[in-house]
Amino acid sequence: MTSIVRSMYENGEGEGRHFITVLHLFIDQLHYSCDGPSSASFLPSSASLPPTVCVFDGDVEIVPMDVSQIPSGTFSANALFAAGPTDISLRQVSLDPMPDYMYDKLAEECQMPDAQLDDSPRPGAFYAALINDRWERVQCVRASKIDKAAFCVYLIDVGAFHYVRSDVLRRLNAKTPFRKMLMFKCKVGS
Q1: Exposed / middle / buried, residue 187 (Cβ in 10 Å: 0-12, 13-18, 19+)
Q2: CATH of the domain at 134
Q3: DSSP labels, 123-135
Q4: How many CA atoms lie within 13 A of 57 on its CB side?
Q5: Are 9 and 21 in contact (CB under 8 A)?
Q6: C-alpha triplet 92, 178, 172: angle, nearest 5°
Q7: For residue 186, what are the β-bridge partners?
Q8: DSSP secondary structure code for residue 14 in this structure
Q9: Where does the pLDDT of residue 170 fall: very low under 50, low under 70, confident under 90, or very high at 90 and above?
Q10: DSSP letter string over 52-107?
Q11: Residues 136 and 63 placed together within one structural domain of the fold
Q12: Number of domains within the chain
């Protein structure tokens, strides 16, 4: 299926070119191992993901989606968070079901003993945090000025700030295929 998707993408066939691009990226991210892409076929949404190679040392770099990855025309999106008309977080519907796979893998990896923090969280570094019974990818902003055991974090896939204690923070898998933030910010125009 990957070769069919690549062929359709390279030839620019059909109106679903953007969907095919996202699907192509999704397949490449899903099927990996230490030796490169696997030969496994595309997984249906009900299947579990292949085993992940987990390495919890080193920093994980997570970057925003490139502006070129966001459609310039009308598209469907899910509202994730809104603090007001100038602070709205959205996620493209075309990314589904990738966020579900990412959250499932994140929850699985955070249960591993090696994911436990050895040191205090560092501002600017990426971690996982258990927030409202769900593991979220976060970036540590700073230590709390009131509670020295708590840290202000930014939920990079939701677009909101939250305070957490260090005992609910985990290191991220350095081998994760999920290297992009899955949301973008917008505001209501006048």
Answers
A1: exposed
A2: 2.30.30.140
A3: TT-EEEEEETTEE
A4: 0
A5: yes
A6: 130
A7: 88
A8: S
A9: very high
A10: PP---SS----BPPPGGGS-SS---EEEEEEEETTEEEEEEGGGTTHHHHHHHHHH
A11: yes
A12: 2
Q: 102 and 147 share a domain?
A: yes
Give 13 or 149, the one with higher predicted confidence: 149
- Identify the domain containing residue 27 by its residue range: 1-44
Residue 65's pLDDT band (cuts 50, 70, 90): confident
CB 153 within 8 A of CB 129: yes
How confident is the prediction for the chain on average, in pLDDT? 75
How far apart CA 170 and CA 158 sit, in angstroms, is 18
Identify the residue whose tokens are 């939920």: 155
- What is the C-alpha separation between 121 and 79, in angstroms, rounded? 29
Q: How confident is the model at residue 123 (pLDDT cuts 50, 70, 90)?
A: very high
pTM of the model: 0.68
Q: Are 162 and 129 in contact (CB under 8 A)?
A: yes
Highest mean pLDDT among 45-59, 75-89, 96-110, 155-169: 155-169
CB 143 within 8 A of CB 166: no
DSSP code for 152: E
